[in-house]
Design goal:
Structural class: alpha/beta
Largest sheet: 6 strands, parallel
Number of strands: 13
Number of helices: 14
Strand order of the largest sheet: 10-9-8-11-12-13
Strand content: 15-25%
Helix content: 25-40%
């Protein structure tokens, strides 16, 4: 391993040396770095340094986030267009009379044939995810060594259009492909008497090559977990740990996992449940979050202050408190600054849905259609939004 030095010039014009560890002899990094004019501006050059709140962040050829129109899968479009007749406008006990699983189970609906094919295809997709392996624990390492981004990212390709060729039930946006947004906001098999799929996340579709192409050699990777209790899932693997391990399988190594949880828990017990290979990245923050945009405990505020467009940011929101989490989700939707920061978003949106009414109790707020509007709106902004469990 060689050591290279980078000259940094701070706001006062005082030069200092930054030691950069090179992970390969193929490429050395020696650049003159200067503070940017504006913290909010997007930089494209290897020789720029952005400054925000006294922190400097190196930006190296950030990939362009292309403005690709969001195209929902045909089943998602049908569910939106026929929300009233499908009962997806229900927003109280009196109007919540129709099973939302009808979108999968009713053979008379025009989407029925394609969604049955989709169910079969999900089995093949899950198999490909389970069997995938790579010898690259962190995709940034070969990028730092000068690897071609397109070629590197192509090694993660599961050939989604091939897997879902018959049903064609893939939604698509600037983030790549994703599963269609449909009730019951769970794995489709939940609709067929298989309650063991209540907590299953393996139906979520991630376009790993598209996600990889958003990385730069020096992207910081962060996972923000709001509602991070691991004890709640003590009899099975935590869904959050599952998703973190899935990212790891595809070479997305998180620098930091910020885990917010309001329920007081003994730290020793928490860290016993965290896999040993994640201990170095896991930050247990045993306090609740707030939705005030200027609040100190609003994790989204931290994003604006500390992270940049070329970083890779994943958010999971599941605190079972609608008056806090719904405003947080709408902040992501309504503030365009977040669409440049957030890559993936997972949210268990408690709405008036018959199949999960008992599980969600008094926390239900809004209709299934309002959830379509929220998640679809986020996808239109370039944030890959998925239903959580």
């Amino acid at each position: 391993m060689t050591i290279k030095y980078v000259l940094m010039v701070g706001m006062a014009g005082v030069a200092s040396l930054l030691i950069v560890k090179q992970l390969s002899l193929e490429r050395s990094l020696v650049a003159l770095l200067w503070p940017t004019e504006s913290a909010g501006s997007t930089q494209q050059s290897v020789s720029t340094l952005s400054h925000s709140s006294g922190a400097y962040h190196l930006l190296v050829e950030p990939p362009e986030r292309k403005d690709v129109p969001y195209t929902p899968a045909s089943s998602e479009a049908y569910a939106n267009d026929h929300a009233e007749e499908l009962g997806f406008l229900a927003n109280d006990t009196d109007t919540m009379t129709m099973a939302s699983c009808r979108i999968f189970t009713d053979a008379e609906l025009p989407t029925h044939k394609s969604l049955q094919a989709y169910r079969t295809e999900l089995t093949e997709y899950t198999r490909r995810v389970d069997e995938f392996s790579t010898d690259i624990p962190d995709l940034r390492v070969p990028l730092q060594a000068g690897a071609d981004r397109e070629q590197l990212c192509s090694t993660l390709d599961l050939n989604l259009t091939d897997v879902f060729a018959e049903s064609k039930q893939l939604s698509h946006g600037s983030f790549g492909y994703a599963e269609p947004l449909l009730p019951p906001m769970r794995h489709p098999e939940f609709c067929f008497g298989r309650r063991q799929h209540l907590m299953a996340l393996n139906y979520l579709i991630h376009d790993w090559p598209a996600m990889c192409k958003r990385l730069t050699p020096f992207s910081r990777t962060v996972f923000i977990d709001m509602g991070a209790s691991l004890a709640f899932h003590s009899n099975r693997q935590s869904p959050a740990i599952y998703i973190l391990e899935t990212y790891k399988k595809f070479g997305f190594a998180f620098d930091h996992v910020y885990a917010f949880e309001i329920t007081k828990q003994e730290p020793t017990r928490v860290f016993e449940m965290v896999p040993s290979n994640m201990l170095h990245q896991y930050h247990w923050i045993n306090v609740g979050v707030e939705s005030d945009p200027e609040g100190k405990m609003n994790p989204l505020r931290m994003l604006l202050e500390q992270f940049k467009e070329d970083d890779f940011v994943v958010i999971k929101l599941d605190i079972d408190t609608g008056w806090i989490e719904v405003p947080l989700a709408h902040q992501l939707l309504n503030d365009d600054r977040y669409s440049k920061l957030v890559d993936q978003f997972y949210f268990e949106h408690h709405v008036w849905q018959l199949e999960l009414a008992g599980d969600w109790g008094s926390s239900k707020e809004g209709s299934i259609k309002s959830s379509f509007d929220l998640f679809g709106g986020l996808r239109k902004k370039g944030i890959a939004a998925h239903y959580w469990v």
